[in-house]
């Protein structure tokens, strides 16, 4: 199977869509497909990044998407689709939906578009809806992959598309998050955290819809003795400056060990998962229309052996199974405080949910996601299992000369 995947976000930029594009392409390659990824170059040389990948990457000039880029993306999609024969043409995110729709007459391939959540609401302006309808973006040849049941239902509410063409395919978690970590005691010592403290970790951009203030308010309501046993590690880059400053001001008023660690490499985050007791991310409804389509970070924490305290919004219930892999509660201070107390004080519940979280993460592999997305057989995988240690040996990345630069003009 030959797959053309077009994405507006990719490494070295960080973000959920870039992670999705990279992981689903890698997994499809392992399952025997030939994958070509079209991605922005962010106006820099990405040869070293691309050489490390097991599939072909072709870069086009550009960075984060703007509507001004739409004409060039239309030309780019047309030239890429016409240049070769593909079995599947996959628009991995919204910026390539219209370009792929306008180019589909050039190929007999299956057309696939992935919706992640927020962009469904963002396409509800009259002008965008008119463009989608006039151009037949979600026409009869197009299948829709939604990253959760919530996203599927949201899409069905907004667009008149045959439900048989909309598939909820949950995301996966990379083998990296199951990998070797520094020891629990060594990691705690590196951060000056005593072995008997209860460590909660949150990994998310510090922005309004992630709900950091709700977690903080819940912590402030805990009994003083319990609150003073807790260390809350907050990992992630800053969002809106005024919001971040307001949050840090509130933190100073709470008698609890709370540390803002900023953005961190995944290796360090993985080590911290191994030293923590549970994960906590309490997203809240956002007036802007941005939604949590799935919640990949909950799976990454689960792969590190952590149960979660999470709020039941958006697609989070697909990532955190209530009372199986974590505690799912409404986005209310009292409910969140009760859940934190439960996991902090009841070690048996914590261990049971941790085991469930790990099993859930292993079940939601990227290989499964790619197989469902592209209708690939998992019996055709290109990896060879090493019986001695159970670690897969992947095929070697393609040579540097296969990495091409595409001119969208």
SSE topology sketch:
Elements: E1 2-6, H1 16-30, E2 34-40, H2 47-51, E3 56-60, H3 70-83, E4 88-91, H4 97-103, E5 110-115, H5 118-122, H6 126-135, E6 142-146, H7 149-158, E7 166-168, H8 184-190, E8 198-203, H9 212-220, H10 224-227, E9 230-235, H11 241-251, E10 257-262, H12 266-275, E11 278-281, H13 296-303, E12 308-311, H14 316-319, E13 326-329, H15 333-345, H16 347-363, H17 366-374, E14 384-385, E15 392-393, E16 404-406
Parallel strand pairs: 1-2, 1-4, 2-3, 3-16, 4-5, 5-6, 6-7, 8-9, 8-11, 9-10, 11-12, 12-13
Antiparallel strand pairs: 14-15
| Strand content range | 15-25%
Order the strands across the largest sheet as they lie in space.
7-6-5-4-1-2-3-16
Percent helix, as a range, is 25-40%
- Largest sheet features: 8 strands, parallel
Whole-number average pLDDT?
90
Ends distance: 28 Å
Q: Uncertain regions: pLDDT < 50 for 5+ in a row?
A: 383-403
Q: What best-fitting shape do the alpha-carbon axes yield?
A: globular
What is the number of helices?
Answer: 17
**Structural class by secondary-structure content:** alpha/beta
Global Rg? 22 Å
Q: Which second-level CATH architecture of the largest domain applies?
A: 3-Layer(aba) Sandwich
Question: Can you identify the CATH superfamily of the largest domain?
Answer: Glycogen Phosphorylase B
């Amino acid at each position: 199977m030959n797959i053309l995947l077009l994405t507006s976000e990719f490494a070295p930029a960080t973000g959920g869509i870039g992670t999705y594009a990279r992981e689903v392409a890698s997994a499809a390659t392992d399952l025997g497909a030939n994958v070509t990824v079209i991605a922005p170059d962010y106006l820099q040389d990405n040869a070293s990044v691309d050489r490390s990948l097991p599939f072909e990457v072709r870069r086009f000039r550009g960075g984060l998407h703007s509507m001004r880029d739409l004409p060039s993306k239309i030309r780019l999609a047309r030239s890429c689709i016409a240049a070769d024969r593909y079995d599947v043409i996959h628009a991995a995110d919204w910026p390539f939906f219209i370009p792929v729709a306008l180019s589909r007459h050039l190929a007999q391939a299956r057309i696939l578009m992935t919706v992640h959540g927020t962009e469904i609401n963002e396409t509800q302006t009259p002008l965008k809806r008119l463009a989608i309808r006039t151009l037949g973006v979600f026409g009869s040849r197009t299948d829709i992959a939604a990253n959760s049941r919530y996203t599927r239902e949201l899409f069905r509410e907004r667009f008149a598309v045959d439900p048989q063409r909309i598939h909820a395919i949950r995301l996966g978690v990379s083998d990296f998050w199951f990998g070797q970590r520094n020891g629990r005691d060594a990691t705690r010592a590196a951060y000056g955290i005593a072995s008997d403290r209860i460590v909660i970790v949150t990994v998310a951009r510090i922005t309004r819809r992630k709900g950091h203030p709700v977690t903080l308010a819940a912590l402030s309501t805990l009994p003083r003795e319990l609150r003073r046993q807790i260390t809350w590690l907050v990992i992630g880059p800053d969002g809106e400056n005024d919001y971040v400053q307001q949050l840090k001001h509130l933190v100073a008023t709470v008698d609890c060990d709370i540390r803002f660690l900023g953005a961190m490499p995944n290796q360090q985050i993985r080590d911290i998962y191994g030293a923590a007791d549970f994960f906590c991310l309490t997203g809240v409804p956002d007036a802007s229309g941005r939604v949590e389509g799935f919640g990949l970070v909950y799976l990454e924490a689960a792969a590190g052996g952590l149960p979660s305290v999470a709020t039941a919004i958006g697609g989070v219930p697909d990532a955190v199974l209530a009372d199986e892999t974590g505690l799912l509660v409404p986005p209310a201070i009292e409910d969140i405080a009760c859940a934190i107390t439960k996991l902090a004080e009841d070690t048996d519940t914590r261990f049971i949910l941790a085991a469930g979280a790990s099993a859930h993460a292993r079940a939601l592999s990227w290989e499964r996601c790619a197989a469902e997305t592209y209708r690939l057989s998992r019996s055709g995988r290109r990896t060879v299992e090493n019986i001695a240690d159970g670690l897969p040996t992947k095929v070697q990345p393609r040579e540097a000369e296969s990495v091409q630069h595409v001119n969208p003009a």
